[in-house]
Design a protein that fits this description.
By secondary structure, this protein is of the alpha+beta class. The protein has three domains: 36-139 and 216-277, no CATH class; 282-385, no CATH class; 417-498, 2-Layer Sandwich (Alpha-Beta Plaits), CATH 3.30.70. The chain is 18% helix and 47% strand. The chain has six helices and 25 strands. It has helices at residues 7-41, 43-57, 107-111, 131-137, 428-442, 483-496, and strands at residues 61-62, 65-69, 73-81, 96-105, 117-123, 126-130, 149-150, 180-181, 216-229, 234-249, 253-264, 267-280, 283-293, 296-305, 311-328, 332-348, 351-369, 376-388, 391-400, 405-413, 418-426, 449-450, 457-466, 469-474, 480-482. The chain has a 23-stranded mixed β-sheet that branches. Strands 7-8 form a two-stranded parallel sheet. Helix 1 packs across helix 2 (43-57). It is elongated and about 120 Å long.
């Protein structure tokens, strides 16, 4: 019997092959793990991850590094999502960046082709959203059947020797016709009382049932948001240092988010905001929040559904206030005997075309101190704003006083085109003085006309334009001046006043 045919040696050979096969089979997952992470670290792997992000967001993306492990989930470093190509020349910062995103998946659900997460953490996420992008997402501007109408207490003023009526030739040709004037009796707008509760909206969660699934979280660390006007390279709204643990799925949970500051047009309006969060699937309730914006107290509550197109409802309320005073920029004092304000917002967060909102502010006994000019007092004031898809309208704005009254309205379309009209009504002496001051500050002529009573004169100021520029006509037959120049001159004059 040959040595190769000996039974003992044959069994040993088979056992060695069997052990080697088991070793290779056991080593294969480890080898695949290291090779996959090596591939993700190389340019082809990074491009593959970026392509997945682009397909989800619809925007060009890039990543610095990606990796994964069964125990630590998926990690993507250096995420950059670019602005749309048409906006990159005016908005130089990316649409979104993040130092890293860490995802802890539920692997068993992924094997069953269900995307479920234990938690997600975003480190230093920053979003820079151009208002032009929001306008684009809201779709084409709606057709406006009628131009804005100014609320006036009497017939339209007629200026002596005013020459031919103003035309559109001085403003961009795409801005549409100028607003017209119509007479509306004072106080004709009837307003409902504020209704801050949203418990009866479709966002109200159904009766809770026993939930055994653990809560899934989205952890945000040092987040920030900026809404910018790309055409002017100007930041409209900033929110900095947002930290939150957001419950997003599973069992009911609560947490507290913090926001260091919110700025509007470079001025800080809110600081050290604390936001309660309450989760009951599928609704995340934000608030109630009680805080102050530029010294004005407000209350806010919101509900966001993590389903479909992210339906959202927001209610804002400024409680009735008596004898309230606030200092505005340049140390100007504004006080009111009484005021209130409230607003509502509804829609799908992912589709600006669905957004709808209403906001009202009204008060009485408004007093402004503007040295060296004489102090101004208005007996009452009101402003009503409506948002319907891509159309934002101020349907009625008025400040009524013995020496000066301001009445107006305006409309802004989703493509940023805007039209507005402001009627100034004042006694002849005040009107002449105002005309002289505007002439000295701007070098432009504003025209006033007589009204139905000899102790009042009026002037209608028309504004037409878009984000690239606003032109203001200083009364019928008056001069034309661009809006930014007018505001800069008025601001400089106010700053130079003692």
């Amino acid at each position: 019997m040959s040595a190769g045919a000996q039974p003992g040696k044959s069994h040993q050979w088979f056992r060695r092959r069997w052990i080697k096969g088991l070793f290779l089979l056991g080593s294969l997952p480890v080898l695949l793990f290291f090779l996959s992470n090596l591939w993700l670290a190389l340019p082809p792997g990074r491009r593959w991850v970026a392509a997945k992000i682009s397909s989800r967001t619809g925007f060009e993306a890039a990543v610095e590094r990606a990796s994964w492990s069964p125990w630590d989930g998926i990690r993507i470093n250096g995420i950059v999502i670019q602005q749309p190509p048409a906006l990159r020349s005016s908005v130089h910062e990316p649409l979104f960046t993040a130092t890293s995103i860490q995802i802890w998946p539920k692997w068993m659900a992924w094997l069953q082709k269900r995307i479920e997460m234990h938690s997600i953490q975003l480190d230093a996420p920053k979003a820079v959203i151009p208002i032009e992008l929001i306008a684009h997402l809201s779709g084409p501007p709606p057709i406006v059947q009628a131009p804005p109408v100014v609320a006036a207490a009497g017939p339209s003023p007629t200026a002596p020797d005013q020459g031919p009526p103003p035309t559109i030739a001085a403003v961009p040709p795409t801005q549409g016709p100028p607003p017209t004037i119509a007479a509306v009796p004072p106080g004709a707008v009837a307003l409902p009382p504020p209704q801050p509760s949203i418990e009866n909206t479709p966002l109200a969660p159904a009766a809770s049932s026993s939930v055994s699934v653990p809560t899934s979280w989205i952890h945000v660390r040092h987040g920030s948001l900026a809404i910018v006007a790309g055409s002017q390279a100007r930041t409209l709204l900033e929110a900095d240092h947002f930290n939150a643990d957001l419950p997003a799925a599973g069992a009911p949970a609560s947490s507290l988010a913090t926001l260091e500051s919110i700025k509007g047009l470079g001025h800080e309006v809110i600081r050290d905001l604390k936001v309660p969060l309450n989760w009951q699937s599928p609704i995340l309730e934000i608030g109630p929040i009680s805080a102050e914006a530029s010294g004005i107290p407000f209350q806010l509550i919101a509900k966001l559904a993590f389903a479909g197109n992210l339906p959202i409802a927001i209610d804002l309320n400024l409680p009735p206030k008596e004898s309230f005073k606030v200092t505005v920029p340049n140390q100007r004092l504004v006080s009111v005997d009484a005021f209130r304000a409230f607003g509502h917002f509804r829609g799908f967060l992912a589709f600006p075309a669905s957004w709808q909102g209403d906001f009202l502010i009204e008060g009485r006994g408004l007093y402004t101190s503007l040295p060296p000019q004489a102090d101004i007092r208005f007996d009452r004031g009101i402003a009503v704003f409506l948002l319907r898809g891509g159309l934002l309208t101020c349907t009625d704005a008025r400040l009524i006083g013995d020496d000066l009254s301001l009445l107006g309205n305006g409309t802004v379309l989703s493509d940023s085109r805007a039209a507005a009209v402001l009627r100034i009504v004042a006694p002849p002496a005040y009107a002449y003085g105002l005309s002289e001051r505007i002439g000295r500050m701007t070098g432009k002529r504003i025209t006033f006309g007589t009204m139905g009573t000899p102790d009042r004169m009026g002037s209608d100021l028309y504004a037409l334009g878009n984000l690239d520029g606003i032109n203001v006509q200083l009364g019928q037959g008056g001069d034309l001046i661009d809006g930014p120049t007018l505001l800069a001159l008025l601001k400089a004059k106010a700053a130079a006043s003692p």
